[in-house]
Amino acid sequence: MHNKSNQERSIIKTKISGKAAECACLNKLKSKVHILF
């Protein structure tokens, strides 16, 4: 049981970090587009 909870926690962490990375990429793209326009 304890191992399972740790595994689930790590999966949630990776999902959150993935979303954060996506947001960072989107922000970079937005800034580049803003410079172009």
What order do the helices and strands come in, and which of them pair?
Blueprint: H1 2-36
Explain this structure.
This protein is mainly alpha-helical and 37 residues long. The protein has one domain. The chain is rod-shaped. The N and C termini lie far apart (54 Å). The mean pLDDT is 86.
Please describe the structure with a list of short key phrases separated by commas or semicolons.
37 residues; rod-shaped
What series of H and E elements makes up the topology?
A: H
Number of helices: 1
Unreliable stretches (pLDDT < 50, length at least 5) are none
DSSP E strands, number: 0
Strand content: under 5%
Compute the average pLDDT.
Answer: 86
Radius of gyration equals 16 Å
Integer tally of domains: 1
Structural class: mainly alpha
State the shape.
Answer: rod-shaped
Largest sheet, described in full?
none
Distance between the termini: 54 Å
Concise structural overview:
By secondary structure, the protein is an all-alpha fold.
